[in-house]
Amino acid sequence: MVSNGTLALQRPNPVLWASTPGDYATLSKVHHIPDGTARLTWQLWEKSMTSEISSATPSDRGVPPFNHQQLDTLMEAEGFDVLIVTSKHNVQYMLGGYRFFMFDYMDAIGLSRYLPIFIYCRGHPEASAYIANSHETFEHELGRFWVPNVQAKARSTTDAMQLCIEHLHHLGRPLQRIGIEAGFLPADAYLVLKDAMPRSEIVDAVFTLERLRAVKTAAELQLLKQASEGVIDAMLAVFSTVRPGQTKRDVVEALRREETVRGLLFEYCLITAGKSLNRAPSDQVLEEGDIMSLDSGGNYRGYIGDHCRMGILGEPDAELRELLEQIEEVQQTARKPLRDGVIGAEIFAAVEPLMQRFSGGNASFVAHGMGLISHEAPRLTTSSPWPYSAFDRDRSLPAGMTISIETTLQHPRRGFIKLEETVAITKAGYEAFGDRGRGWNRAALADPSFKASR
Q: In this structure, what DSSP letter does residue 150 have?
């Protein structure tokens, strides 16, 4: 809500925070929600999260490529009349996979920046609009957009928002509550919106949009699989050619090339070598016997493959083999509970006894959502490197949700050892993407008789 010039972050409808339908009575008392309303909203929420009505694939002009009925349900639960979508990943989702090629990498131009805006009015997908950069006229001519109303006239953040406001006025209906992406809306554009809509609440709607994307379609799962396969193939190619005398920076550059040639957009690589726990690319020189971790995110058509694999310049000794086997056991155990409807907490409960067995070093386990961004829904823990609530920890996870599972050991003598992979929940259980190269990947040019140093 806008009050005295401040913006309220979105607090999801308390009904949606209930862990079980048995919380209806508590909700009715604490939040003054009639029991019948609480029960109905819970049922709508559960229905909206099933794979049967997950986001549709891109289709004909005028037909939304996402599940607009699900979005209407989510918006109704939060009281949103209209959504103003401005993040690249959510704009891509709402437009059925479209990203403007000219600003795919950077946003800044001249004295401002690129600001795409997608507008959705609850219950009226036909009233949707896309506010685009003037150069997107070329894309419009090629029929790239399903949206009935495309305004390819914006050249800065403020005039993009002004075009958005004009469309809001043309809707001809009261807009009591407007949802925005607070972390993805420039301050100058927000002020234009705030000044033009003084009678509207302006509330962060990131939670609502994240819930819309939570269950992946078959097409989205295929993109995540291709991203994952590409990252793993690139890593194995790099491990096979790395040699003593190269630097960490050389290895990361080689990985960038390998991911790029496989059609991926290289996003990052966290790399360690030897006994060091430092994960930044650097001029550290690789030596015979060094272990090496590659933790990389590769982007395929907007979807991220996020994986970590281990390599060695030589042959692992018994201790290194045992440490990686322990990590692999945790990774495999985390998969065992996965099925349509698994409770998020079951994943962590399954690995907890194994995590207690690590001796020496700092061991950690994390599971988090993957998709258009890393650490999206499902949100399973409050102890991840990125702060958020564990909203889905005590909820069922339907088929179509995708998670990253990662186990890390920071050992004071042996260095950094980690495995990470992306796993999709399916009706039959799960499917692991890029499920190769899980052991010690040897460098082809290293002396195989050389044992790793202690």
A: E
Residues forming beta bridges with residue 68, ordered by sequence position? none
Structural domain count, the chain: 2
How far is residue 237's CA from residue 349's CA, in Å, rounded to a whole number? 36
Which pair of structure tokens corresponds to residue 303?
Answer: 């979807």
What is the overall mean pLDDT for the chain?
Answer: 88
Show the low-confidence residues of the chain (pLDDT under 70): 1-60, 445-454
Residues 319 and 196 in one domain: no
- Give one DSSP letter per residue of 73-132, joined into a string: HHHHHHT-SEEEE-SHHHHHHHTTS---GGGSS--EETTEE---EEEEETTEEEEEEEEE
What domain range includes position 174? 2-213
- What CATH number is attached to the domain comprising 428? 3.90.230.10
The residue from 151, 182, 213 where one domain ends is 213
Q: Is the distance from CB of 423 to CB of 353 less than 8 angstroms? A: no
d(C-alpha 430, C-alpha 214), whole Å: 16
pTM score: 0.86
Burial of residue 4 (CB within 10 Å: 0-12, 13-18, 19+) is exposed
Which stretches does DSSP call E strand in 250-378?
Answer: 265-273, 291-300, 303-312, 342-343, 362-370, 374-376
The size of the chain, in residues, is 454
Domain finish residue from 176, 197, 213: 213
